[in-house]
Write a structure and sequence with these properties.
This protein is of the alpha/beta class. The chain is built from eleven helices and twelve strands. The strands form three sheets. The protein has an eight-stranded parallel beta sheet, sandwiched between helices. Helix 1 packs across helix 9, helix 7 packs parallel to helix 10 and helix 8 packs parallel to helix 9. The protein starts with a strand and ends with a helix. Bound molecules: ligand 6DK and zinc ion. The site of ligand 6DK has 19 residues, from loops. Ligand 6DK binds next to loops.
Amino acid sequence: HRIHVFWHEGMLNHDTGYGVFDRGEDPGFLDVLDKHPENSDRVKNMVSILKRGPISPFITWHSGRRALLSELLSFHHPDYVNELVEADKNGGKVMCCGTFLNPGSWDASLLAAGTTLSAMKHVLEGQGNIAYALVRPPGHHAQPTRADGYCFLNNAGLSVQLALNSGCEKVAVVDIDVHYGNGTAEGFYTSNKVLTISLHMDHGSWGPSHPQSGSIDELGEGQGYGYNLNIPLPNGTGNRGYEYAMKTLVVPAIQKFDPDMIVLVLGQDSSAYDPNGRQCLTMDGYRKIGQTILELANKYSSGSLLIVQEGGYHVTYSAYCLHATLEGILNLSPPLIPDPNGGYPEDEAFSVKVIDSIKRYQDENVPFLKV
Ligand code: 6DK
Ligand code: ZN
């Protein structure tokens, strides 16, 4: 197996600036500010670890491209696309919480969307089974009509639409970014052709976390009822908790849905060291998730898998977790890079209880899981 990585360095030109965390402003108390968490350094390291790390022999590089405005309309409303074009012409705009469209941002957004579409096309045309869109700005909060949470265009959602328009009948999306993939969920909320599954931190235990939605009872609407599965996990869930959630909730749902394409929406902000999350995965946990996703792709989607990059803000550890995930997806063992931080303390007893109760809730309320 190989992984086809799609990338374009123009995406580095989205400059999110400095502040305290993601606030983008200087209250004047400090001499040294943070780079906005969604900065180009994180992605530079992802590129370099795939080029120079031990996984490099298994990777084929492809150049990304800009999306056409017409391609955006499969997911986004034309008024919203116009709003972005106008904002760019006017020199930029604060679109949402921590979401800054600056000079260069719109071009990078078009590159992220087009690069993801190219990666999906590669898989759809059978030129490769597994493609990874290494993109920024991220996309999974971007809704049909608005920007949200560092996202302008929903890269994964656009690629799902391309798959549907190219003859796929059922697409499954598994989102392991630490935040709820609310934009993708909204785009397919009334569809039974797209199963959206999101594992994210339960903001019940962390008020300001983003977005303030993603609970288990948001199951979809109309024909899409039951085809949006939310898995809010307690802070500190860790490797064994995520493994249990995959085994108990994700694997059976994919088995019942039987998709012909799987999209892994990948964020390394579920790691133990991320400034924006507290879920405590380490490289071992990401490696295991990668293995499980590979098994699912091999069993149900004849090996077809698109991976789309989302968050992940620890500038070095995110790259290591990416490497570990792709090692899992390539089924390489033993681990090629040791975890620079060793292990992390785990106690999955509470998250296992939560996951069991989500399982009971879904089995009771989701028709397609009963069949
Ligand atoms: N900040 C993501 O990792 C993005 O899911 C996470 C976005 C978190 C936003 C947190 C937030 C504010 C609030 C108010 C004012 C300024 C900033 F999309 C991904 F990148 F993947 O609400
Ligand atoms: Zn995130």
